Amino acid sequence: MESNQNSLERYQRTQMRKENIIEKLRERGCRITKQRQILLDVILKEECSCCKEIYYKAAKRDPSIGMATVYRMVKTLEEAGLIQRKNMYRIDYDMGERMAFA
Q: Residues 35, 58, 32, CA angle at the centre, nearest 5°?
């Protein structure tokens, strides 16, 4: 039962993070397309070591996502100050704090 509770809490935290990111992107005038939502889901839920890995995981969900879309999204998140690149492509985000690629 506890693992179900942990899973629910993790899901709720991820949803809050996603909503905060979407809000920040909208403030910058970005449209939130289905493809951008899929990319955010992949970045928030998966540990990816490069844009290519993000692309492969996202393309499984939507084959119309292109590599250029992934690079543009990562660049947009960086320019918005929402992420930093380090060794892994994963967003660590607490409300009011910067996200980082871990």
A: 20
